[in-house]
Amino acid sequence: MAVLATVAVLATALLVWRWQAGDTYVAPAPETRADGADPVVAAQTLRRLEAALRDGESGPTGDLAAAPDSRAVLSAAAGNVAEIGLEDIGLRYLSETDSPMTTDGWSAEVEVVWRVAGGDGQNAARAAVEFEFVEGGDRIAGIGGDLVPLWLQGPVEARRGGGAVVVAAAGSDRVAAYHRQARTAVAEIRQRLGRRTNLVVEVPGSPAGLDRSVGAEDGAYDGVAAVTTGADGSVVPGTPLHVFLNPRVYGDLDQLAAQVVMTHEAVHVATDAPLARNVPLWLLEGFADFVALQDTELPLARTAGQVLAQVREEGVPEALPSGVDFDTAGGHLGATYEAAWQVCEVLAERRSDDDVVALYDAVVAGSDLAAELEKRFGWNEAALTRAWQQRLRGLAGSAGG
Ligand SMILES: [Zn+2]
After folding, report:
1. Quick one: 280 and 401 in the same domain?
2. Which of 50, 84, 135, 248 sits 20 to 30 Å CA-CA off 326?
């Protein structure tokens, strides 16, 4: 019953230091231009598409598509703009790529800009997306490449309200449940951290759709329930943060576990965790669980079952979880998250929940962890580690097998 194990809750770690397609706009033009490639005509076509999208009108997009499948994609995109409430839509021709998708056309990087009204504040997302042009640039034959925003992948369904916007690939029968969980997460953040946050949750139709939505390598998030990162897959200041769900893994969670994951991710969003620098992952991840698991009805056997089993078998860990321990390729990810949560629990036990929040906020804002630990808890890292080990030993002894 590795519920929280497969949850592998965040995986921001993977993305934190990887600046992706979003900021690599200026690809050098290839040496030779494909036959018939005309950037000027293509740019005009993009301007017409942009106008149709801004109006949320699918009608005009039909004239811009080369074939039925691309017509369906462009028409869906226009519908999605209205369905989600996208604003600030922009399309800008950047440069021809050196890998034409077909022989009778060419592909180019197009800067796509969008913003979820009522979810993203004033910040827009921007990604470099590959468009395929044919007929001298008059028509669009497809949208592809490593990163394709969910709203350009096909029709979506959206729900909004209660500070949460959920955007799911059409065909999901769980949109209402996702939205309920997202609203609850927003309410829990307000109640437990005293701060307001808007939450945008995207739910692609498949794990592959998730990889495309954030520009990750194929399979990167197959075992992960959810990931919080920039709406355009980049992690740079000013880019709105979204929660992306893996429908297969998240969909398998029961109601309580799903809520814990959703609230955990919402904590990352509310505190800009993916943008934090020089903050140990045990604090970023442990804190998200600390908030998400407050007043939990889940028994310790589920919330900390894996780390306690590990302690019974191998004794307590020698050190607080390291960045390597959070590597999704490692074997004990569930235990690592649980161990990190227990670090925050032992801190709360020494002082209070509020002191844990204050420590977290200070360190995320750039303060030195050691100094904050000393100031607020009277501990250095060695003392914290010993107290944490003692707590794990005690729980492993008392919580039963
Ligand atoms: Zn996390």
Report:
1. yes
2. 248
Complete edge-to-edge strand list for the sheet that includes strand 86-96: 86-96, 105-116, 125-134, 139-144
Taking the centre of ligand 1 as the mean of its atom positions, its distance from the CA of residue 332, in whole angstroms, is 15
Neighbours of 28 (CB within 10 A): 8
Give the structural domain span for 31: 21-146
Residue 58 counted as domain residue: yes
* Residue that terminates a domain, selected from 146, 172, 193: 146
Cα(137) to centroid(ligand 1), Å: 43
Number of domains making up the chain: 3
- 297: pLDDT strictly greater than 60: yes
Distance from residue 13's CA to the centre of ligand 1 (Å)? 8
Whether the pLDDT of residue 263 is over 80: the answer is yes
Compute, in angstroms, the gap from residue 285 CA to the centroid of ligand 1: 5
Q: Is residue 1 in some structural domain? A: no
Distance 6 CA to ligand 1 centre (A): 13
pLDDT digits (tens, 9 = 90+) for 321-355: 999 899 866 667 899 999 999 999 999 999 999 99
User: How far apart are the CA of 254 and the centre of ligand 1, in A?
Assistant: 18
113, burial (CB in 10 Å: exposed 0-12, middle 13-18, buried 19+): middle
Question: Which whole number is the average pLDDT over 98-104?
Answer: 66
CATH number of the domain that residue 243 is part of: 3.30.2010.30
Q: Calculate mean pLDDT across residues 70-81.
A: 96
Are residue 130 and residue 160 in the same domain, yes or no?
no
203/256 same-domain check: yes
Q: Within its chain, how far is the Cα of 278 from the centroid? A: 20
